[in-house]
Amino acid sequence: MKMKIMKSAVLSAAFASVITLTSGSVFAQEAKTLDQLLDFVKQGQTTEARENRAREAKFKSAKNQQAKLLAEAKQMRANEEARSTRLEANFEQNELTVAEKQGQLKERLGTLTELFGHLTSTAGDLRSNFTSSLVSAQYPGREEFLDALIAKMSGAEQLPSIEEIERLWYELQREMTESGKVVSFSADVAKPGGEKESRSVVRVGTFNIISDEGKYLQYIAETDTLSELARQPGSPYNDWASELVNATGGTVAFGADPTGPTGGSFLAALINSPTMNERFEQGGTIGKAIALVGAFAFALAIWRLLVLTLMNSKVRAQMKSGKANINNPLGRVLKVHEENPTMDTETLELKLSEAIMKEVPKIELGLNLLKIIAAVAPLMGLLGTVTGMIITFQAITIFGAGDPKAMAGGISGALVTTVLGLLVAIPTVLLHTVTNGQAKKVIHVLDEQSTGLIAEHTESQLGK
């Protein structure tokens, strides 16, 4: 029994070995006898040996190929090293040649080197000035000559000619001369709408250019064109520009901007300054309400001044007349005495006081309203200011405080209502004072005349 078990184990091990050895190239078959198992083992060894020989041949071929490539690489490295040595020698020789040639060039140029340096610097500065100069609008193309001259002197291959040097001096002198002239010439002008027209323009030195319509123009160097400013500085500058265009000689006032030929800071400040109408619009609804209240106050004050002035003239005429006329307050008060000549003094005094009291409201009509408007107008302006500041702070909360101009514009708009309130309040106070003085003058005359009547009536009563 034990022998059978051992025999089975040996057969199993041999069978596994046969499968392992022949798995790469020989089909694994089930061995039925030991002789078949032995044949399978022999066949596996033969196949394995053949594959190993093929593998070795392949390895040898690859090794020979790698050796060939290595030899080629070594040969290439040697060739490149030799080439590098030749190039280094050639480079050193070229450096010596360049240094020698530079020495020869410097020796031959002599003091011209410094001259060409000054010419290059002058041409560069002049080229920068020509880019924004208003003279270029009248004499275009000057930059091209300077570009060519700068390129020639920077290349160090050609020397500038005497004619080119003289032209550089000429252009520099012409720029200085033209900066002090007021000249007229024709040019294409672009309107704010985009259309172009050939118009006569006047150049005031290198400061400003105006059209024959008295409009300020802007020179655009990139396109070499003149364009009319969309927003003009307004009066009196446009009026002065029109006078300059139409002038034939003599001295004419003109608003020139010395800070920039294309609309510098002064001209920009004038252009960006809001007009009276724009400032009024900044006040918003509250500003319009203040303006309406102010207009009503002025109309009321003027009306009362006219009425009181006419009333004063009638009262003065009544004082000169011996008969009471009911077309004025004094005449109506005196009419009471004429109608009651025999009345006792106490009753007459009461009657006259009653007549004066009836006239006072008519005389002082509208004065209290003027006083109220003078007090309310600044408060309305303050209300507008607070409202505008709230809106400004809300904008700062949303957009931040990175733009001081936006903040200044909002605060300026908020303060417009305060200005409007003061503009209404101050004249209203003055008008109220004047109107109240006229009214007090009439009332004083009434009191004076009534007191005199009472005194005369008392004397006549005592004389009886």
TrEMBL record:
Q: Which residues form a coiled coil?
A: 59-90
* Places the protein is found: Cell membrane; Membrane
User: How is it placed in the membrane, per its record?
Assistant: Multi-pass membrane protein
Task: Please cite one Gene Ontology biological process associated with this protein.
Answer: protein import
Q: Which residue numbers delimit the MotA/TolQ/ExbB proton channel domain?
A: 327-446
* Statement: the UniProt record of this protein carries the keyword Transmembrane helix: yes
Residues of the signal peptide? 1-28
The Gene Ontology CC terms held by the record are: plasma membrane
Q: List, alphabetically, the InterPro entries matched.
A: ExbB/TolQ_transport, MotA/TolQ/ExbB-rel, MotA_ExbB_proton_chnl
Ordered alphabetically, the record's keywords are:
Cell membrane, Coiled coil, Membrane, Protein transport, Signal, Transmembrane, Transmembrane helix, Transport
TM stretches of this protein: 289-311, 372-399, 411-431
Q: Which family does it belong to?
A: Belongs to the exbB/tolQ family.
What protein does this entry describe? Answer: MotA/TolQ/ExbB proton channel family protein
